[in-house]
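Issue 218. Parser rejects a valid record. Input:
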Amino acid sequence: MSLSNSKPNDPSQSDAAAPSDEAAIAAPKVEPDYIELVKFLVRPFLETADALRVDCEHLAGGKRVMIRLAFDASDRGRVFGRGGRNIQAIRRIVDAAAALAGCQARLDVYGESAHGAEDSRRSSGRPSHTPKAKPKPRPKQPEQP
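Output the parser choked on:
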């Protein structure tokens, strides 16, 4: 028993609510909420979500977006992920959202310290630009007969 009297191939029952390809292309570009997007993507990696800070600045007449991200230093490894995979994925998503809006985005990551935000590359304790010290050569031992 059929619950509907309409035929499946009835042209009068077409999907009028479905947007056509032309309407989707001509639709006005909507500016994404970058702050909420970054918070949504980063929060799952954080143990201390209260320390998360995101700031967004529009540059070059709205064609460029600078997003600054800061969080507790103890969460750094989880946010960056093995080999930086997590932060690269987050940057790709932000770049894609910006591209849909017709602009470019840059996501910079900062770490928090007792003195405020500082660059995360310097928060590891050892400067990243200095090489490790080479071990000193051992003195030769006298040969025993």
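Fixed in the parser; the record now loads. The radius of gyration is 27 Å.
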